[in-house]
Predict the 3D structure of the following.
Amino acid sequence: MRLQKKVFRLVDANLNRAKEGLRVCEDIMRLIVNDKNSTKRLKEIRHRINSILKTSGIDYQKLILCRDSRNDLGKKIKNISKRNKIDDLFLANSQRTKESLRVLEELFSILNNKTAQQFQNLRFKFYELEKDCIKKI
């Protein structure tokens, strides 16, 4: 597998992971906490990821074509963590989001420095939003 394809696969996995984590956090704030403002802010960050990708110069279809879910070694790793409370679920998914945004920032530091900076800014924006949400849960 060519290096570019492997890098695109890594970008795709982390884009998906970040947006999935955000979506869980968003739904908790929307449907459990019933906080319209936090829900809106989480949705904006999730949509901002798509906007950043569009301006990065990388075609999303190429990322999808580099996806190899069938042979992904990670899918066989069982999740042994147990979530007992809604705040545990929120925190696990906010952590997933932060880690993925950091990976995207690092990857784009070699692909497109402007995009790397945008992911860094988004990550720090999420740090503050996470803090606000935790206070409300």
